[in-house]
């Protein structure tokens, strides 16, 4: 009899990648039936998954009754929370804890949580305004405290982020302006494609990865390397500009300006993964990850 894996955000970047790679895997597609959680089961993306045999259900992360129904019978759960839906740390933390509580109640055997480091703690209190990291770290801590069998996937800096803010300057040169030095190391991931490769490997290595952090990055890249590979691929000129903290914040909506500033300062010091190597996380993979150059080649943004 197939086990059930419940995937939150099944029509989004991370959950969608998990569903895609489980369906495509010769072993896991037979071992697991997939239940996808989404807000609206009638939208085309949800209907497309239904046509592939995924059971699509809606659930309210704020309602434990709703989550009890959604997680019923689940052996494995992939959980991703969305801070930016409300931009409220308390709401995200409550939602994550709700899922953890129900997973504990229903005896879920493996909770895979998409988390991030606690920036406030890792920076020694220097950077204390990055709630979209710290809130997830709070949920992770709670999952550990209540004893749900879990593995923690830490997605890297999205390659797609660069599509948003590498723009032509007045001289037509593709320019990235950041409040860090050009030597700051960004761990990058093609989130839509590669999340499922990591999660698939986590599922297959459950027994040895309970309690572990898996770092979801293809490699570390400096801004110089990011831009050089754009030039190499497209032939377009590129330029890096380091801007002051105040100038950088002026580029952004006020509600997120300080958060994004400190997010980038964290990447420079102590580092997005606090200096951790990617070797262990790569060691579990069966599939090749998308490199930054490969991402640029298929991107229409540059």
From TrEMBL:
The keyword Cell membrane does not apply. GO terms for cellular component: nucleus. The keyword Manganese does not apply. Residues 1-295 form the NmrA-like domain. InterPro entries: NAD(P)-bd_dom_sf (IPR036291), NmrA-like (IPR008030), NmrA-like_oxidored (IPR051164). Keywords: NADP. Belongs to the NmrA-type oxidoreductase family. This is NmrA-like domain-containing protein.
């Amino acid at each position: 009899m197939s086990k059930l894996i419940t995937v939150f955000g099944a029509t989004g970047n991370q959950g969608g990648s998990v569903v895609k790679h489980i369906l495509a895997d010769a072993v896991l597609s037979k071992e697991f039936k997939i239940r996808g959680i989404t807000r609206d089961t009638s939208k085309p993306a949800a209907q497309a998954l239904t046509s592939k045999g995924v059971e699509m259900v809606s659930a309210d992360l704020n309602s434990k009754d709703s989550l009890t129904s959604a997680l019923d019978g689940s052996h494995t759960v992939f959980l991703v929370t969305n801070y930016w839906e409300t931009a409220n740390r308390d709401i995200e933390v409550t939602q994550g804890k709700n899922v953890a509580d129900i997973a504990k109640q229903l005896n879920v055997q493996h909770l895979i949580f998409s988390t991030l480091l606690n920036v406030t703690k890792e920076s020694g209190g220097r950077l204390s305004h990055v709630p979209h990291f710290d809130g997830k770290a709070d949920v992770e801590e709670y999952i550990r405290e209540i004893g749900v069998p879990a593995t923690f996937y830490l997605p890297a800096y999205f390659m797609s982020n660069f599509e948003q803010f590498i723009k032509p300057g007045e001289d037509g040169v593709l320019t990235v302006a950041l409040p860090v030095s050009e030597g700051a190391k960004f761990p990058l991931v093609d989130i839509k494609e590669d999340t499922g490769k990591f999660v698939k490997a986590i599922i297959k290595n459950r027994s040895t990865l309970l309690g572990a952090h898996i770092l979801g990055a293809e490699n570390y890249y400096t801004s110089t390397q990011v831009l050089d590979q754009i030039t190499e691929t497209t032939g377009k000129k590129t330029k890096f500009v380091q801007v002051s903290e105040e100038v950088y914040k002026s580029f952004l909506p006020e509600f997120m300006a300080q958060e994004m500033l400190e997010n980038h300062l964290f990447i420079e010091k102590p580092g997005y993964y606090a200096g951790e190597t990617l070797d262990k996380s790569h060691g579990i993979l069966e599939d090749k990850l998308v490199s930054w150059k490969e991402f640029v080649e298929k991107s229409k943004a540059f």
